[in-house]
Amino acid sequence: MNPEPFRQLDRVIHEKGRLAIMSLLAATPELSFTELRDTLGMTDGNVTTHIRTLQEAGYVVVAKLYQNKRPLTTCTLTAAGRAAFADYITLLEKIVHQARNA
Fold this sequence. Notes:
Blueprint: H1 4-8, H2 11-14, H3 16-27, E1 31-32, H4 33-40, H5 44-56, E2 60-67, E3 70-77, H6 79-100
Antiparallel strand pairs: 1-3, 2-3
C-alpha cells in the first residue's frame, strides 16, 4: 500500500473534532456556536479550541453579532475551507480505493 496519501492528509482537518465541525459546516451555510456544540456533544472549551484552530488555518470565519438583544456567534466555511475540505474528502476516497484494491 502506498503511504503517500496518508502523508498528504490535512492535519488541521484530520483531527476528529475538527473533521466533525468541517463536515457540519460543509453541509450547512452557517451554524451558531451553540448548534455546533449541541450537535457534536462537545464542551464549550473544545468547540472554541477547534474553531480557533480552523480559523487560524483560514478555513472558518467567525462572526459575533446580536440577535434579539442576545450575543450570537456564528461559524461559516471560507472558500479556502471548502476547497481544503473537498481536497481532504478526495484524498480519503483515494485511500479507500487503494485499500479496496490491495
